[in-house]
Amino acid sequence: MLAALNEKIKAEGNGTAPLTSSRTGVRPPNVSDSQAGNIRQALCHALDQINSTGSFASARALPSMDPCLIVGDIGKIDLPLQEHQARQIIDKCRQAPYGKGDQTIVDTSVRNTWELDSSQFEMQNPKWRTFLAAIVSHVGKDLGINVPIRAELYEMLVYEQGAMFKSHTDSPKIPGMFGTLVISLPSAHTGGDVIVRHRHEKKVLKSSEMDQGFMCWYSDVQHEVLPVTSGYRWVLTYNLALEPDQERPGAGLRQGHRAYLHDALRQWLTKVAGSDNLQRLIYALDHHYTEAALSVQGFKGRDLVVAQALRDISSELPMDIFLGTLEKTAEGSCEDDYYDEDWHSLDEIYDTHFAISTLVDVDGVHLADDVELDEKSLLQRDCFEDVDGEEINYEEGYAGNEGIILVPRDATPAFLQTAAKVKGYSESSIKNLASLLAYFSERCQDPSKDASSLLMLKSLCEKDWASKPMHSFQVKPKLDKPAVMKLLQAVTGSSLSGAVENINGNIDLEFFAWIKGEIANGLSFAEVQKALLQAVQSLPHLSFKLAAVRAVTPPKPEEEEVEEWERTALEEFLDTAKSMVLGLQDGASVISHCVWYRDIDYIQARLLRAGQVTAAQQPQWMSVFEAVSKSMISAMDVPAMVSVLTLESPSRRTPYSGAPVEDQLLSAVQSGWLVSFWENLLEKKAPDHLTMALSSRIVAEANRIPPQEFNHLWIPLLQGLIHALEDNSIPFSTQRYQALYAAVLDAFLTRWVGKEPAKSTSLVRGAVRCSCGDCAGLNAFLASPSLRTQRIPMGKQRRQHLHNQLDAAGVDCTHVTEHVGSPHTLVVNKTTRLADAARREWRARQARADEVIRGFPAEALRTLLGAEYDRIVNMEGIWLGAAGSGAGSGTSAQPAAAPREGGPGRDDGVAELLEGSPWGWMLKRKAVDVIDLTRSD
């Protein structure tokens, strides 16, 4: 069957061999005798001579093969297609849409055809699979693809008289898609020709001249279906794709072509130093690619052969290859037509600008955007011909003219530095520099690319260090730590100080161990001590600084200059410690460091003086402990204490401060630390005034503890403290502990569990925050006690604004766009889902609190709570209708605010809230009133 089909295709083809590129060119004069001005032309000719074995489009006749098509309840469709069955199929079809940006549009003035998707019909001929495989094999040959192709059935199309599809390109519909296959089925018709255009070539593919046949093209080929003048054009369409992990198709150059190209490139490289016009050259590609597909791996046809040839030769010659989207911007005047929204041709051009809008490496890794380009770098003068201005669609990615950029290797740093400095130290240049630094940081860790990438990294860094931001808020990009390590190891001696100064503190402790080894091997400490101190000072936390000092210097330095350096560093760090964010690890590091280098007298005299605490001299360690404990208790800010668990929680939504999370973690607390601190106070028989002060501070601040910290910090403290009291024979009836347990558990109920929310039946919802005309009308609807649903016809941008405002305000409603009519309609429907969710969440918290309280040892808790036991255990103050907690412990326990139902500040009393708001007058609106949200004022 396959052999017969192959012969049939050869015998009954449409009279043309598989299409090939029209670029053949004539071998130019010997380039070795050319002047520098002819180098570009010679190289362009050498590249033009490279041919793919395939074309951008193809069409062939096929032998007859009935697929045995079954369409729904119509049954089998006979061949050739008859009028009555054509009408039956059309009755089952929908009007075919087309894509425009992120929209799917039905517009018969652009696309007028009938469509059945692949789920609405089936092919029952078992031989069809083999027939299709033979077709796909010929598709590969015609398009120049020498690896397996996957053809996935997409749809059936019926073009009746007058049906057509204006010029367009096919968008990717499946992973790996590169083209489209159309199989025309037997159906008499005239017209319906497919016009395919690519670069400067045009072909006409005629299904009307084939009883049965196929046509195929690459996805980026512009094509249109001309109107059918009679009969029915009946086709099946398939998406053509390669497997994602499939090696891209390729075709090696013939040896003569390769030698010619190699010679042209070599001649260019020998002449490049003498001409500014040869510093970089750009060869435009045949096909268009989106940014996502811009890589050698994603290239098609002749582009792939050209790119592979250049990449192979670049391993032999000192040149680098990049890829880019080329952009030409022409600015000028045009005739203004207020009522015409289409694009206009420029009557007079004032200025023309060329740029590489997106720069990537050969693997498609992004490097930079908006790189300035000299028109003289373009090898082809016609690469922007026949390209009209068009609206950039940021949803799909801009597909412009793409090209291969050739740069002499020793000129690559200057080229990339230009990319990193777009129009001064601007936001664009910062973004480009960050991208390039990240790229070469990663590459310099690859042993095979280490040397050249490290040189490039150094070059970019030196250029960056010499630049200053245009604005104070602009922050220079940082290298990652492995790249910093590589960079600092590459710059020693006097250069090290300048490098450290510009690194922005992202230095790994491994660097200090490495520099210690270099000093041991003969590197002068005097030469690097200033840079080392700068490096240590740049570290973000005190514990890191001290660890770095220890990594560089031994415990008993023999050299006086090393000991003096360590002493200076330590004194400076302790002086600046007051202004730093400090945590447990910092305290341990200070003590460890002082013990390592000094003695306890130094700890007493220096550390306690730094903390402005006067300690008794005897016994030394107990004095230190008591003084530090007193200082810590007096400085304790209970409401501000944040647990490590809270900061690390994935559900955490907002930071507690503007400080980075890493800094907050340094000062974060763990419940175990609180328990240990209290145990130490009891075990070391610390004066009673310390535990009294600690208890009193917590009791006084209990009602200001953040709700999320009860389960992470304070309940675990109460649980652990019971055992500490038992172990140290402290009676549970001690007043300070009774007050502590009553205050914390009472606050736990009122602040974490909260008051039981009422079941809301009101239709009044909170307002959105915006005061524009659309939002004012929306707020009027939300404030209405009688309206549940509102339909608002309006344009897309206005609808999206209301969507955003409703989401931001957390209004208890649904809001969806109904895609019917023009303009589409925003439908807002009030719900109780947020209120219902609040009640469910409250019940879950109440059940959890009951479990927590009953988890304490009953008798111990009864003694600790005393007269408050029944009230707290039964949670008397939080149930709906309860008058209040009436805490006997003396704490002012207030019910927590009810969960919000709508806008800011909402609680159960929606009406009371609205009465004092700008929308209060709406509460008096009659139920029959209709609110018009479409007004524009």
UniProtKB/TrEMBL annotation:
Residues 144-244 form the Fe2OG dioxygenase domain. InterPro entries: Oxoglu/Fe-dep_dioxygenase_dom, Pro_4_hyd_alph_FE2OG_OXY. Residues 13-34, 885-911 are annotated as: Disordered. This is Fe2OG dioxygenase domain-containing protein. It comes from Staphylotrichum longicolle.
